[in-house]
Amino acid sequence: MTIIRQQDLIDSVADALQYISYYHPVDFIQAVKKAYDREESKAAKDAMAQILVNSRMCAMGHRPICQDTGIVTVFVRVGMNVQWQGDMSLTDMINQGVRQAYTHPDNVLRASILSDPDGARKNTGDNTPAVIHYEIVPGDKVSIDVAAKGGGSEAKSKFAMLNPSDSVVDWVLKMVPTMGAGWCPPGILGIGLGGTAEKAMLMAKESLLEHIDISELQARGASNRNEELRLELFDKVNALGIGAQGLGGLTTVLDIKVKDYPSHAANKAVAIIPNCAATRHVHFDLDGSGPAQLDPPNLDDWPEITLEADESVRRVNLNEVTQEDIATWKPGDTLLLSGKMLTGRDAAHKKMTDILATGEKLPVDLTDRFIYYVGPVDPVREEAVGPAGPTTATRMDKFTRTMLEETGLMGMIGKAERGQIGIDAIRDNQAVYLIAVGGAAYLVSKAITNAEVVAFPELGMEAIYEFEVKDMPVTVAVDTQGESVHRIGPQIWQAKIEEKTLNLV
Ligand code: SF4
Predict the structure, then answer these.
(1) Please, which residues bridge with residue 143 across strands?
(2) Number of domains the chain is built from
(3) Against a cut of 0.85, is the pTM above it?
(4) pLDDT digits (tens, 9 = 90+) for 143-161
(5) Claim to verify: residue 269 and residue 323 sit in the same structural domain
(6) 389 CB less than 6 Å from ligand 1?
(7) Nearest ligand 1 atom to alpha carbon 65
């Protein structure tokens, strides 16, 4: 019989969450580096360079890889010979570990969890509760996987109950383009197949904990149906040309994972859950000898890449930029922004459009300004702001026309593509939409020299800040004519990949 102390479990969960907030799994870094080396699309290669540089900075500085520090997801396998010392439930112990990790003073993480999701949407303040899955297994240890799942990638999850004769490959290839770039590729697709509706979703999530090993599988060949699916989907999804951050390129997925379970004769459940550029998970066992010891990775495994601005990069002073200037920007252009910008995301946009609907004045003047869709991590020590990468812009699409037409806003900065209503509003108002790299949040925060809350402080990380930035790297995603890099880039790269494949035949 093994006795596990309550505090050991709490400390282990807290340590694991701190660990994964700044250390990518090494297999993920190696897979991104491999994709970076073979990438031929300049925009996608630049995006992966930023992800790799950001990762190394986070590993060295012990600050979060992404401003979205995730919803905690835990898989626990409890041995039947384990006893607990302490009076808390296992769920309470895990949540105490979450609380301890997310409020750690040296590396405070962002509290992103809201209770009453269709009502008051009130922040719980410490990122609790976690989503926990239990299994009782033979043995005398507790085996735990801890993950912190980004909201942007979770939002792109898909599920279908196919007819038994339907093709899983066809369905996945139909779904992936509809996921856009809000899941911050390159990443991994977890696929759950069979069982029931909820079992398929759970398997898709659990498969993301597996080691990235597609190269080994390619070398040895498939030995069962799941492996055949992995190989076929890996090639076919990458052939879509979506590329890193949806900019068009050779690598969209670093691996495809498939888990299956026996199914009812009438059903073929299938689920996709993507893991993003901020893939974060770690495994540990507790055997009664104390809290888990998580060794720091060897930083030699992180490539040293230097980000260099070539002569095509334009430097833009946001304090002086004019309508004539922005009209010359084209999709795919790289800019280095300096000067002042405002921030705002979902809750701030809702509030601002509600105020505008009443005819009242906004608390901030948006005339000729840029707004950055971001919810930063709180700063520690000498930081102006914590990691502050972009959030998914499509969520702001429904507010965009009002914001542009009623406030004089000049441009927006976010991540991933815009929906058609957003693009129409941008074109009709000759505005622009720029993107920063999702999953490079600490790197972006280094370009922010000052941050001040200027409106709606009650919204916490969703408040409106004014940022002062110096050389913040962005890419033009939608120009004043409504042309979108997320439409053009994948089209070009899909055709190029097709041509390459034909030449090989
Ligand atoms: S990398 Fe993208 S999807 Fe992942 S947590 Fe960060 S912003 Fe969200």
Answers:
(1) 77, 285
(2) 3
(3) yes
(4) 999 999 999 999 999 999 9
(5) no
(6) yes
(7) 6
